[in-house]
Amino acid sequence: MNLATYAAFAAAAISLINLVFTTTITGRREKAKWARDAMTDSFYQLLNASFSCKDAASRYRNLVNEASSDAQLNRQREIGEHARAQIRERLTHLRLLASAQVVDAANELRRRSERLAELAIDVSCSDTQYANALTDLTDARRVLLSAAKRELKLPGRGV
After folding, report:
1. What are the b/e assignments for 83-103, b being 16+ CB within 10 Å?
2. Could you read off the pLDDT of 69-128 as tens digits, one per residue?
3. How do the domains of the chain map onto residue ranges?
4. Quick one: which of 148, 155, 158, 154 has its CA closest to 45?
5. Alpha carbon distances (Å) from 97 to 42, 62, 86, 156
6. What gap in Å lies between CA 111 and CA 120, rounded to an integer?
């Protein structure tokens, strides 16, 4: 074999190595991008659902105080139940994608959302108890935002 043949083999080998290396690196980057995008979407939907849950609970409580119809109360209860189901669904997504710290913060947000919903339908709940539950939910949301930003390596500490 002459020098040109060796050069052709070397060029082919280098090209193959380059192709494998580039494909591997690109695949890792795409996987990391996908996971980051999926987490961002899950955080966004989880936070939106927590706001929907809070809004439904507050509307329900106001409707009870206004002696509204059962149909109106049932509608707000359904909205709240749907929002809590969305929270649980997003929490499942985060369990697959995020760190234990983020999952713990999301789970605390879920618990506090459920507590607020329980208090909204409890006629014996005082305004102070309800306000404290709202504050607890807001605090849980802040903790989750901070954990999410750390996980995604975003600036800031939450709201």
Report:
1. bbebbeebbebbeebbeeebb
2. 888 888 888 988 999 999 999 999 889 888 999 999 999 999 999 999 999 888 888 999
3. 3-152
4. 148
5. 9, 38, 17, 21
6. 14
Query: Which of 19-57 are b and which e, b meaning 16 or more Cβ less than 10 Å from the residue's Cβ?
Result: eeeeeeeeeeeeeeeeeeeebeebbeebbebbebbbebb
pTM (2 d.p.): 0.76
CB 127 within 8 A of CB 58: no
Degrees (nearest 5) of the Cα angle 150, 156, 159?
100
- The C-alpha angle 103, 128, 125, rounded to 5 degrees, equals 85
* 3-152 CATH pick, 3.90.1640.10, 3.40.50.300, 2.60.120.10, 1.20.120.660: 1.20.120.660
Q: Are 100 and 147 in contact (CB under 8 A)?
A: no
Distance CA 94, CA 85 (A): 14
Give the residue from 71, 69, 90 showing the smallest Cα distance to 79: 71
